[in-house]
């Protein structure tokens, strides 16, 4: 199976974009405290973590189709691999977030400069009032599918960034069936399923009965998955599928984040170069190497799940403990220094958790999947 360094690097850039945005929220240096100008708009861009997550979702659509085209396996084997890839680090991050909740409250709600303090207090109150409902939904990783009107803050309780993992899990569960239909040799099936999906996408975007704090319900984010899926279809050797992939991505664009599309388009050109589909001039290739093929970016990309899930618990631990130690007298300057130190500490922490949790459980998932795949063959003798 071909490994795209550019895709791994893109994950790194997006994960760290989210971390930096949250670091600004916690330290209080958001764009809101600066007059319009270069700094104001630069910080506003850094705080646009939603674009980073939308780009993650595009990547996920690309990668899941790539995996399915590269590895023939049954649904049971596939879902075991996916579950073992994301559940272990998610459950550990979730447990940490729950245990560290008092420190989270100290770090995120006791100081006037922290962004969205009132919302955070209300969210924690909802967690405590409906703890078991939220816990059940998180353990099934379906918390992102539930609208605010049914359970307030369902997608963002305990560990807010984990809303996107719920979205990923929703996609993983239906991906083999959806992609099989979209890859069908029969054009009527391909276009028919795409049309049904787009009708549902439009219905969920335009309805006014239910709302979600994040686009964490599958049909709200399916257009971004479709852009990634269309990109991978374009890399096949099937001309009809290439055309369909372009159409699928194009009709999804009205429901997407335009900045995420621009970022993906840039990196997709790098993917085309990496796939030997195009050849670019040397200066451009040098830029690609700097942005997408350097060892640091690839290294950070491998650990992006850990970085994405654990930075809030780490911020809570460091600033919460310091706040208690200083008896609530922490200054914004002290908080800023601690946020910087914590942000840098995410690199070794992510390395440790990737090496000790993510990679071993992922390998275990592969072994379990192979064992299941071998059962029919062995039982037939």
Description of the structure:
There is one protein chain. The protein has 16 helices and no strands. The protein is mostly helical. It has one domain. It is globular, with a radius of gyration of 22 Å. The two termini are 31 Å apart. Mean pLDDT is 96; it is low at 377-381.
Key features of this structure:
Acyl_transf_3_dom, transmembrane, disordered C terminus, acyltransferase activity, transferring groups other than amino-acyl groups, about 375 residues, mainly alpha, about 75% helix, Acyltransferase, transmembrane helix
Secondary structure topology:
Blueprint: H1 5-27, H2 38-46, H3 49-70, H4 75-99, H5 101-109, H6 117-129, H7 131-139, H8 163-182, H9 187-206, H10 218-234, H11 239-252, H12 258-274, H13 282-292, H14 295-302, H15 304-325, H16 332-379
